[in-house]
């Protein structure tokens, strides 16, 4: 009996012993786990995000370039990520995301206990345990992490800690928005905003239920469920998402079945720096922003990074006008290019005209040295002889054509000559009263031709310079558009106005018209009249006025500038002409409205620059002169519907404008540059057309003149602008100054007219 009692007490002792041991182990384990969590939160197992990091996670946001009408023109990014607010997300996407990835999202505080236990007991075979908040923590602060189990456990615990902190710091809606902003959907698109644009070419708010389901399906594995590469897999995954939505009563069973039957329909457009609209302008803006960030610092003194700071650059560009301008340039240049190839068909040195072999070799060699091939081979320490030899070896390449890119085989040397054939164009459109640039087209295709013919390339302006001479004459000599002057032989002798030999200008048609008014002279672009005017005012006075009009290039102080022997950019020409439309006040071209940081705070707003150049009367007199060009001069085809030489290349013709238009065509020597400057009261647009090399050109005036090469771009562009009533481009009259002191309305001339611009007694008379 005593032995039995001893055994019972021993068993009780053993049970108590093991109980104590269990609770001791449990307590130590619990303390160990708590210590582990505590040490992890202190960063002993690797850095943890600070309070400031949680407030402002490094979300690596792309900088957006936004038009004046609210359209995103493009982005600067290393990672193409745009930030959305919860209110920007479509309801169907939020529902699909929660139903598929974290059904109890609104009930937990960062960690889903039920899901965690399920994952532990099933060893991960019955679904994972990561909540949306944990996935966000991983995306923001750790990425995929290590595959080594001990390290993976440490990372998991850190995710839990960060998730709890995120839940305390942000609302559920903010967490959802952040998660949608950081996920990488592949094809350079990070975040729902970029993905919606890349795969469906639409804003997130416009996504349909099945499109949202596709994107939510990609959250599982965007590499595997890529709609471009794996449409069947994406469809299967989309249907799983739709089933989850039906299970959560977010859509009906009938709706689920209807949506699951739909095919995968994409409108895929890879976002790239070389694609989209306003590519030349965006590159010009990028260069500007490089200087801007050097001069404008963050509040803490550090530099802004346009590739990751999520700036919003609001520009003056109007996306509609930019699109119309690009369409007009493309339509006309494709049309004119056909004629250029025809023109060069029998030219053995095409596309170069009347130059020596030595000059041709110099152009080709320079092009080779400017090429990517030359730079790459130079970096490989190849000799110049080897590099030149490589340009003569045929290779497969993709080339630009107006009918789309084409795969072909040719030598790099032949490709250089091929690309030299292409006519280029520059167009800029600006509001004269504000200086706001509304459209900027720097060339025909940024991917293949990066040179910007608006802000970068100054070209000879031809007769478009003549209004500056006429404006100087009206100001300096008190002349008017109705004053008469003799169109006849004229010479400036050696020594006068710095000329080194006698200079006798000729008219382009080699004839003289006798007595003409200044308005008639500019309409007909008479060279002798421009030469006479600069002779009377002096080249110095013309250069001084031109500088006041904002022209930055160096202008020679020579009488020949009266005929346009001056290189000026399209940007400067538009600004100068805008001064006439703005009643004599120069306004510096403006392409920025403001810059905001990622929080929406305005960090920069430019101050407009302007100064008086001419009084209102003189500016209006120049406008009246320029109206004569479109009423009876080289721009008259803007108002007619009759045919003419080369009319099959007048893209968009007939234009049949009946409103007030002031303009001027320009054609340089040998037809290497064609210009048209066109103005209506609230819009000034300049167009230049020519080849990259001035020796590559049309052989005759028929197609090489500004009226055929450049004017049709302006006409077609304005037709498109006028057709869009939302733009409100003016069809009204230019504002006439009150108490105008200069005679601008020229009536019928008497039978006998004498040169009223001469100060001395003039005996030259011409009977009409």
TrEMBL record:
SUPFAM superfamilies: beta-lactamase/transpeptidase-like, Lysozyme-like
Biological or metabolic pathway of the protein: Cell wall biogenesis; peptidoglycan biosynthesis
Presence of keyword Protease: yes
Compartment(s) where it occurs, according to its Swiss-Prot or TrEMBL record: Cell membrane
Domain Penicillin-binding protein transpeptidase: 430-682
Catalytic activity: [GlcNAc-(1->4)-Mur2Ac(oyl-L-Ala-gamma-D-Glu-L-Lys-D-Ala-D-Ala)](n)-di-trans,octa-cis-undecaprenyl diphosphate + beta-D-GlcNAc-(1->4)-Mur2Ac(oyl-L-Ala-gamma-D-Glu-L-Lys-D-Ala-D-Ala)-di-trans,octa-cis-undecaprenyl diphosphate = [GlcNAc-(1->4)-Mur2Ac(oyl-L-Ala-gamma-D-Glu-L-Lys-D-Ala-D-Ala)](n+1)-di-trans,octa-cis-undecaprenyl diphosphate + di-trans,octa-cis-undecaprenyl diphosphate + H(+); Preferential cleavage: (Ac)2-L-Lys-D-Ala-|-D-Ala. Also transpeptidation of peptidyl-alanyl moieties that are N-acyl substituents of D-alanine
Keywords: Carboxypeptidase, Cell membrane, Cell shape, Cell wall biogenesis/degradation, Glycosyltransferase, Hydrolase, Membrane, Multifunctional enzyme, Peptidoglycan synthesis, Protease, Transferase, Transmembrane, Transmembrane helix
Domain Glycosyl transferase family: 72-245
Protein's UniProt keywords contain Methyltransferase: no
Main subcellular location of this protein, as a coarse class: membrane
Entries under InterPro entries matching the protein: Beta-lactam/transpept-like (IPR012338), Glyco_trans_51 (IPR001264), Glycosyltr_51/Transpeptidase (IPR050396), Lysozyme-like_dom_sf (IPR023346), PBP_transglycosylase (IPR036950), PCN-bd_Tpept (IPR001460)
Segments passing through the bilayer: 25-45
Source organism superkingdom: Bacteria
A Pfam family: Transpeptidase
Family named by the database record: In the C-terminal section; belongs to the transpeptidase family.
Name under which the protein is recorded: Penicillin-binding protein 1A
Organism of origin: Flavobacterium chungangensis
């Amino acid at each position: 009996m005593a032995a039995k009692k001893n055994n019972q007490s021993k068993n009780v002792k053993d049970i108590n012993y093991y109980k104590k041991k269990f609770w001791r182990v449990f307590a130590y384990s619990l303390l160990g786990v708590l210590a582990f969590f505590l040490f992890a939160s202190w960063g002993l197992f690797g850095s943890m995000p600070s309070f400031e990091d949680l407030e402002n996670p490094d979300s690596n946001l792309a900088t957006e370039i936004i038009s004046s009408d609210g359209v995103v023109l493009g982005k600067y990014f290393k990672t193409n990520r745009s930030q959305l607010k919860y209110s920007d997300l479509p309801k169907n996407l939020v529902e699909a995301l929660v139903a598929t990835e974290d059904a109890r999202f609104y009930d937990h505080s960062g960690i889903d206990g039920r899901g965690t236990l399920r994952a532990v007991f099933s060893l991960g075979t019955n679904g994972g345990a990561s909540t949306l908040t944990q996935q966000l923590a991983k995306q923001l602060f750790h990425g995929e992490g290590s595959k080594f189990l001990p390290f993976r456990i440490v990372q998991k615990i850190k995710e839990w800690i960060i998730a709890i902190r995120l839940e305390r710091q942000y609302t559920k809606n903010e967490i959802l928005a952040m998660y949608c902003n950081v996920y990488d959907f592949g094809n350079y698109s990070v975040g729902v905003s970029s993905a919606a644009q890349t795969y469906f070419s639409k804003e997130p708010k416009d996504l349909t239920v099945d499109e949202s389901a596709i994107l939510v399906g990609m959250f599982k594995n965007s590499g595997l469920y890529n709609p471009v590469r794996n449409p069947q897999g994406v469809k299967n995954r989309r249907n799983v998402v739709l089933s989850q939505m039906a299970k959560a009563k977010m859509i009906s069973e009938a709706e689920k079945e209807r949506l699951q039957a739909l095919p995968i329909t994409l409108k895929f457009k890879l976002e790239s720096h070389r694609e989209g609209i306003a590519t030349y302008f965006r590159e010009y803006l990028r260069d500007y922003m490089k200087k801007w960030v050097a001069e404008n610092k963050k509040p803490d003194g550090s530099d802004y990074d346009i590739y990751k700071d999520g700036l919003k650059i609001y520009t003056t560009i109007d996306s509609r006008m930019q699109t119309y301008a690009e369409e007009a340039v493309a339509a006309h240049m494709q049309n004119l290019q056909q004629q250029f190839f025809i023109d060069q068909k029998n030219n053995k040195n095409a596309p170069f005209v009347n130059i020596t072999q030595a000059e041709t070799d110099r152009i080709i060699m320079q092009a080779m040295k400017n090429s990517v091939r030359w730079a790459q081979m130079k970096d490989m320490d190849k000799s110049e002889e080897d590099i030149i030899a490589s340009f003569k070896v045929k290779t497969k390449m993709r080339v630009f054509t107006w009918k789309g890119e084409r795969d072909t085989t040719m030598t790099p040397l032949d490709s250089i000559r091929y690309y030299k054939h292409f006519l280029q164009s520059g167009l800029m459109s600006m509001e004269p009263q504000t200086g706001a640039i509304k459209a900027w087209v720097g060339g025909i295709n940024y991917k293949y031709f990066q040179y910007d013919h608006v802000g970068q390339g100054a070209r000879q302006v031809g007769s478009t310079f003549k209004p500056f001479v006429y404006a100087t004459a009206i100001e300096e000599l008190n002349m008017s558009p109705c004053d008469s002057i003799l169109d006849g032989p004229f010479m400036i002798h050696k020594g006068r106005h710095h000329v080194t030999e006698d200079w006798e200008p000729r008219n382009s048609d080699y004839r003289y018209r006798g007595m003409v008014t200044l308005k008639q002279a500019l309409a007909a672009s008479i060279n002798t009249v421009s030469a006479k005017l600069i002779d009377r005012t002096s080249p110095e006075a013309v250069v001084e006025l031109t500088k006041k009009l904002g022209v930055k290039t160096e202008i020679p102080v020579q009488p020949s500038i009266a005929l346009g022997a001056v290189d000026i950019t399209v940007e400067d020409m538009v600004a100068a002409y805008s001064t006439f439309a703005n009643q004599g006040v120069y306004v510096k071209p403006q392409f920025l409205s403001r810059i905001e940081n990622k929080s929406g705070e305005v960090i920069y707003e430019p101050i407009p620059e302007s100064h008086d150049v001419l009084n209102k009367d003189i500016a209006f007199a120049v406008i009246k002169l320029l109206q004569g060009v479109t009423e009876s001069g080289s721009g008259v085809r803007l108002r007619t519907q009759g045919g003419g030489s080369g009319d099959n290349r007048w893209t968009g013709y007939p234009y049949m404008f009946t409103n007030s238009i002031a303009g001027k065509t320009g054609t340089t020597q040998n037809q290497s540059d064609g210009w048209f400057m066109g103005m209506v009261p609230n819009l000034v647009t300049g167009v230049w057309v020519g080849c990259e090399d001035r020796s590559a050109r049309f052989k005759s005036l028929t197609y090489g003149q500004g009226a055929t090469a450049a004017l049709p771009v302006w006409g077609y562009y304005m037709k498109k602008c006028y057709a869009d009533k939302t733009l409100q481009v003016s069809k009204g009259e230019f504002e006439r100054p009150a108490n105008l002191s200069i005679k601008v309305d020229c009536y019928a001339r008497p039978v006998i007219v004498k040169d009223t611009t001469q100060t001395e007694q003039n005996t030259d008379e011409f009977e009409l």
